[in-house]
Write a structure and sequence with these properties.
Blueprint (H helix, E strand, L loop, with lengths): L7 H28 L5 H26 L5 H6 L1 E5 L7 H16 L5 H9 L6 H6 L1 E5 L19 H6 L7 H13 L5 H19 L9 H16 L4 H4 L50
Antiparallel strand pairs: 1-2
Helix pairs in contact: 1-2, 2-4, 4-5, 8-9, 8-10, 9-10
Length: 290
Protein backbone atom coordinates (compact mmCIF):
# COMPACT_ATOMS: atom_id res chain seq x y z
CA UNK A 1 0.00 0.00 0.00
CA UNK A 2 1.29 3.43 -0.89
CA UNK A 3 0.41 6.68 0.92
CA UNK A 4 0.48 10.27 -0.24
CA UNK A 5 2.81 11.64 2.42
CA UNK A 6 2.47 15.23 3.54
CA UNK A 7 5.44 17.45 2.76
CA UNK A 8 7.40 19.67 5.09
CA UNK A 9 5.75 22.84 3.76
CA UNK A 10 2.17 21.73 4.45
CA UNK A 11 3.13 20.35 7.84
CA UNK A 12 4.89 23.60 8.75
CA UNK A 13 1.84 25.65 7.79
CA UNK A 14 -0.41 23.35 9.81
CA UNK A 15 1.94 23.66 12.77
CA UNK A 16 1.93 27.45 12.44
CA UNK A 17 -1.90 27.54 12.48
CA UNK A 18 -2.01 25.31 15.55
CA UNK A 19 0.66 27.47 17.21
CA UNK A 20 -1.51 30.55 16.65
CA UNK A 21 -4.43 28.81 18.33
CA UNK A 22 -2.21 27.72 21.21
CA UNK A 23 -0.88 31.27 21.54
CA UNK A 24 -4.42 32.63 21.74
CA UNK A 25 -5.26 30.09 24.46
CA UNK A 26 -2.14 31.00 26.43
CA UNK A 27 -3.00 34.69 26.14
CA UNK A 28 -6.48 33.97 27.47
CA UNK A 29 -5.08 32.00 30.41
CA UNK A 30 -2.63 34.76 31.33
CA UNK A 31 -5.39 37.35 30.97
CA UNK A 32 -7.60 35.35 33.35
CA UNK A 33 -4.75 35.03 35.86
CA UNK A 34 -4.16 38.80 35.74
CA UNK A 35 -7.74 39.99 35.83
CA UNK A 36 -9.68 37.44 37.85
CA UNK A 37 -6.96 36.37 40.28
CA UNK A 38 -5.21 39.71 40.40
CA UNK A 39 -1.91 38.40 39.06
CA UNK A 40 -0.54 37.87 42.54
CA UNK A 41 -0.22 34.90 44.83
CA UNK A 42 0.17 31.17 44.36
CA UNK A 43 -3.27 30.72 42.80
CA UNK A 44 -2.41 32.82 39.76
CA UNK A 45 0.92 31.03 39.35
CA UNK A 46 -0.75 27.62 39.56
CA UNK A 47 -3.34 28.64 36.96
CA UNK A 48 -0.63 29.82 34.58
CA UNK A 49 1.51 26.68 35.02
CA UNK A 50 -1.43 24.29 34.62
CA UNK A 51 -2.75 26.29 31.69
CA UNK A 52 0.60 26.23 29.88
CA UNK A 53 0.88 22.46 30.40
CA UNK A 54 -2.63 21.89 29.11
CA UNK A 55 -2.09 24.05 26.05
CA UNK A 56 1.36 22.72 25.15
CA UNK A 57 0.65 19.03 25.79
CA UNK A 58 -3.11 18.73 26.09
CA UNK A 59 -4.00 20.62 22.90
CA UNK A 60 -2.21 18.28 20.43
CA UNK A 61 -3.30 15.17 22.33
CA UNK A 62 -6.96 16.13 22.59
CA UNK A 63 -7.27 17.42 19.05
CA UNK A 64 -5.57 14.42 17.45
CA UNK A 65 -7.63 11.97 19.52
CA UNK A 66 -10.98 13.71 19.08
CA UNK A 67 -10.38 14.59 15.40
CA UNK A 68 -9.00 11.14 14.53
CA UNK A 69 -5.42 12.16 13.86
CA UNK A 70 -6.12 15.68 12.72
CA UNK A 71 -6.12 19.12 14.36
CA UNK A 72 -7.49 22.51 13.32
CA UNK A 73 -4.24 23.30 11.51
CA UNK A 74 -3.97 19.89 9.88
CA UNK A 75 -7.62 19.93 8.86
CA UNK A 76 -7.11 23.29 7.16
CA UNK A 77 -4.20 21.87 5.14
CA UNK A 78 -5.92 18.53 4.43
CA UNK A 79 -3.43 16.30 6.27
CA UNK A 80 -3.86 13.69 8.99
CA UNK A 81 -1.73 11.55 11.31
CA UNK A 82 -2.00 7.76 10.90
CA UNK A 83 0.09 4.80 12.01
CA UNK A 84 2.75 3.46 9.67
CA UNK A 85 0.28 0.69 8.77
CA UNK A 86 -2.34 3.27 7.77
CA UNK A 87 -4.61 2.74 10.81
CA UNK A 88 -6.08 5.55 12.97
CA UNK A 89 -3.88 6.64 15.86
CA UNK A 90 -4.68 5.93 19.52
CA UNK A 91 -4.22 8.16 22.59
CA UNK A 92 -0.82 6.49 23.14
CA UNK A 93 0.37 7.62 19.71
CA UNK A 94 -0.92 11.15 20.34
CA UNK A 95 0.80 11.32 23.75
CA UNK A 96 4.19 10.19 22.39
CA UNK A 97 3.94 12.69 19.50
CA UNK A 98 3.03 15.53 21.87
CA UNK A 99 5.79 14.66 24.37
CA UNK A 100 8.46 14.48 21.65
CA UNK A 101 7.01 17.66 20.19
CA UNK A 102 8.78 19.49 23.04
CA UNK A 103 12.06 18.32 21.51
CA UNK A 104 10.97 18.79 17.90
CA UNK A 105 9.64 22.34 18.19
CA UNK A 106 10.58 23.97 21.51
CA UNK A 107 14.29 23.18 21.79
CA UNK A 108 16.70 25.58 20.14
CA UNK A 109 16.69 25.93 17.18
CA UNK A 110 12.92 25.76 17.20
CA UNK A 111 11.53 23.39 14.59
CA UNK A 112 14.90 22.62 13.04
CA UNK A 113 15.11 19.18 14.68
CA UNK A 114 11.71 18.23 13.23
CA UNK A 115 12.69 19.46 9.76
CA UNK A 116 16.01 17.58 9.73
CA UNK A 117 14.35 14.40 10.98
CA UNK A 118 11.66 14.65 8.28
CA UNK A 119 14.31 15.10 5.60
CA UNK A 120 16.36 12.12 6.75
CA UNK A 121 13.51 9.61 7.21
CA UNK A 122 11.78 7.70 4.43
CA UNK A 123 8.26 8.64 5.53
CA UNK A 124 8.97 12.33 6.34
CA UNK A 125 8.73 11.58 10.07
CA UNK A 126 9.78 13.94 12.82
CA UNK A 127 11.12 12.46 16.07
CA UNK A 128 7.65 12.21 17.54
CA UNK A 129 6.48 10.21 14.53
CA UNK A 130 9.54 7.93 14.63
CA UNK A 131 9.05 6.95 18.27
CA UNK A 132 5.25 6.80 18.03
CA UNK A 133 5.22 4.76 14.82
CA UNK A 134 3.13 7.30 12.93
CA UNK A 135 3.30 9.37 9.77
CA UNK A 136 1.41 12.32 8.32
CA UNK A 137 -0.49 11.70 5.09
CA UNK A 138 -2.32 13.96 2.71
CA UNK A 139 -6.09 13.57 2.44
CA UNK A 140 -6.79 16.21 -0.18
CA UNK A 141 -4.67 16.62 -3.28
CA UNK A 142 -4.95 18.43 -6.58
CA UNK A 143 -3.75 15.34 -8.42
CA UNK A 144 -6.18 12.97 -10.05
CA UNK A 145 -7.03 10.01 -7.80
CA UNK A 146 -5.59 6.70 -8.98
CA UNK A 147 -7.84 4.43 -10.99
CA UNK A 148 -7.76 0.74 -11.69
CA UNK A 149 -6.74 -0.23 -15.24
CA UNK A 150 -7.31 -3.63 -16.83
CA UNK A 151 -5.15 -4.59 -19.79
CA UNK A 152 -6.47 -6.80 -22.56
CA UNK A 153 -4.28 -8.61 -25.09
CA UNK A 154 -4.05 -7.11 -28.59
CA UNK A 155 -6.65 -8.51 -31.02
CA UNK A 156 -5.55 -11.89 -32.32
CA UNK A 157 -3.06 -12.52 -29.51
CA UNK A 158 -5.50 -13.61 -26.81
CA UNK A 159 -4.43 -17.24 -26.93
CA UNK A 160 -0.74 -16.32 -26.93
CA UNK A 161 -1.21 -14.14 -23.87
CA UNK A 162 -3.13 -16.90 -22.15
CA UNK A 163 -0.19 -19.29 -22.59
CA UNK A 164 2.45 -16.88 -21.26
CA UNK A 165 4.14 -17.99 -18.04
CA UNK A 166 4.41 -14.84 -15.92
CA UNK A 167 5.16 -16.58 -12.62
CA UNK A 168 8.62 -14.96 -12.50
CA UNK A 169 7.40 -11.44 -13.22
CA UNK A 170 7.77 -9.33 -10.07
CA UNK A 171 5.40 -6.54 -9.00
CA UNK A 172 8.11 -3.96 -9.73
CA UNK A 173 8.54 -5.27 -13.28
CA UNK A 174 4.79 -5.22 -13.81
CA UNK A 175 4.76 -1.65 -12.53
CA UNK A 176 7.28 -0.62 -15.17
CA UNK A 177 5.29 -2.34 -17.90
CA UNK A 178 2.07 -0.75 -16.63
CA UNK A 179 3.61 2.73 -16.60
CA UNK A 180 4.90 2.27 -20.14
CA UNK A 181 1.56 1.05 -21.49
CA UNK A 182 -0.32 3.92 -19.85
CA UNK A 183 2.08 6.52 -21.25
CA UNK A 184 2.79 4.97 -24.64
CA UNK A 185 -0.01 6.87 -26.48
CA UNK A 186 1.76 10.15 -25.59
CA UNK A 187 5.18 8.96 -26.84
CA UNK A 188 6.57 9.48 -30.31
CA UNK A 189 6.61 6.29 -32.41
CA UNK A 190 10.41 6.09 -32.36
CA UNK A 191 10.62 6.59 -28.61
CA UNK A 192 7.79 4.12 -28.02
CA UNK A 193 9.50 1.44 -30.12
CA UNK A 194 12.90 1.93 -28.50
CA UNK A 195 11.52 1.94 -24.96
CA UNK A 196 9.35 -1.11 -25.58
CA UNK A 197 12.41 -3.07 -26.75
CA UNK A 198 14.38 -1.98 -23.69
CA UNK A 199 11.60 -3.25 -21.42
CA UNK A 200 10.75 -6.40 -23.35
CA UNK A 201 14.27 -7.77 -23.86
CA UNK A 202 15.13 -8.40 -20.17
CA UNK A 203 11.61 -9.74 -19.59
CA UNK A 204 12.01 -12.42 -22.25
CA UNK A 205 15.37 -13.44 -20.78
CA UNK A 206 13.99 -13.61 -17.26
CA UNK A 207 10.93 -15.60 -18.42
CA UNK A 208 13.12 -17.88 -20.60
CA UNK A 209 10.63 -17.16 -23.37
CA UNK A 210 11.17 -16.94 -27.12
CA UNK A 211 8.83 -14.48 -28.78
CA UNK A 212 7.22 -15.87 -31.94
CA UNK A 213 8.01 -14.05 -35.19
CA UNK A 214 5.74 -11.18 -36.09
CA UNK A 215 4.95 -9.98 -32.54
CA UNK A 216 6.05 -6.46 -31.75
CA UNK A 217 7.76 -5.60 -28.47
CA UNK A 218 4.89 -3.38 -27.30
CA UNK A 219 2.42 -6.16 -28.12
CA UNK A 220 4.48 -8.57 -26.04
CA UNK A 221 4.42 -6.13 -23.10
CA UNK A 222 0.66 -5.76 -23.40
CA UNK A 223 0.28 -9.55 -23.37
CA UNK A 224 2.53 -9.80 -20.30
CA UNK A 225 0.47 -7.17 -18.47
CA UNK A 226 -2.79 -8.93 -19.35
CA UNK A 227 -1.44 -12.34 -18.28
CA UNK A 228 -0.03 -10.92 -15.04
CA UNK A 229 -3.33 -9.30 -14.11
CA UNK A 230 -5.27 -12.43 -15.01
CA UNK A 231 -2.95 -14.50 -12.79
CA UNK A 232 -2.94 -12.19 -9.75
CA UNK A 233 -6.18 -10.20 -9.89
CA UNK A 234 -8.82 -11.55 -12.28
CA UNK A 235 -11.57 -9.04 -13.07
CA UNK A 236 -15.24 -9.64 -12.19
CA UNK A 237 -16.93 -12.21 -14.41
CA UNK A 238 -19.52 -9.68 -15.53
CA UNK A 239 -16.89 -7.43 -17.16
CA UNK A 240 -14.03 -9.62 -18.31
CA UNK A 241 -15.03 -13.28 -18.36
CA UNK A 242 -15.09 -14.90 -21.81
CA UNK A 243 -18.52 -15.37 -23.29
CA UNK A 244 -17.71 -18.73 -24.79
CA UNK A 245 -15.61 -21.63 -23.49
CA UNK A 246 -12.20 -22.06 -24.98
CA UNK A 247 -8.51 -22.14 -24.12
CA UNK A 248 -7.95 -18.46 -24.77
CA UNK A 249 -9.61 -15.13 -24.14
CA UNK A 250 -10.88 -14.53 -27.67
CA UNK A 251 -14.46 -13.22 -28.05
CA UNK A 252 -17.08 -15.32 -29.85
CA UNK A 253 -16.93 -15.42 -33.68
CA UNK A 254 -18.48 -12.43 -35.45
CA UNK A 255 -21.84 -12.61 -37.12
CA UNK A 256 -23.83 -10.35 -39.44
CA UNK A 257 -21.94 -8.34 -42.06
CA UNK A 258 -18.73 -10.23 -41.31
CA UNK A 259 -20.34 -13.55 -42.24
CA UNK A 260 -21.68 -16.49 -40.26
CA UNK A 261 -19.62 -18.17 -37.56
CA UNK A 262 -17.06 -20.61 -38.89
CA UNK A 263 -17.86 -24.22 -37.94
CA UNK A 264 -15.60 -26.05 -35.56
CA UNK A 265 -13.02 -28.32 -37.23
CA UNK A 266 -13.85 -32.05 -37.22
CA UNK A 267 -12.46 -34.10 -34.40
CA UNK A 268 -11.64 -37.77 -34.23
CA UNK A 269 -8.79 -40.17 -34.91
CA UNK A 270 -8.76 -39.55 -38.64
CA UNK A 271 -9.48 -35.85 -38.62
CA UNK A 272 -6.85 -33.56 -40.06
CA UNK A 273 -5.53 -30.83 -37.75
CA UNK A 274 -6.98 -27.37 -38.33
CA UNK A 275 -4.91 -25.02 -40.47
CA UNK A 276 -2.74 -22.58 -38.54
CA UNK A 277 -3.90 -18.96 -38.28
CA UNK A 278 -2.42 -16.52 -40.78
CA UNK A 279 0.80 -14.94 -39.50
CA UNK A 280 0.91 -11.25 -38.54
CA UNK A 281 2.52 -8.76 -40.91
CA UNK A 282 6.16 -9.62 -41.33
CA UNK A 283 8.46 -7.20 -39.57
CA UNK A 284 11.16 -7.55 -36.97
CA UNK A 285 9.44 -6.97 -33.60
CA UNK A 286 12.59 -6.20 -31.73
CA UNK A 287 14.09 -3.68 -34.15
CA UNK A 288 13.96 -0.13 -32.94
CA UNK A 289 15.86 2.99 -33.86
CA UNK A 290 18.72 3.84 -31.57
Amino acid sequence: MEFDLAGIASRSLARALDALIQGALLFAIVLIALTVLGGEGAAALVVVIVGVALVVLGYPILTEVLMRGSSPGKAALGIRVVTVEGAPITPRHAFVRAALGLVDFLLVPGGMIAAVSALLTERNQRLGDVFAGTMVVRERSASTPPRAVWFNPPPGLEGYAHRLDVARVTPDQFGLVRSFLLRSPQLAPEARAALSVRLATPLTAMMAHTVPPGIYADQFLQCVAAAYQRRHAPPPAATAAPTAPGPGWAPPPPTGPMGPPRPLPPTGPGAAPPPPPPPPPARDPWSAPS
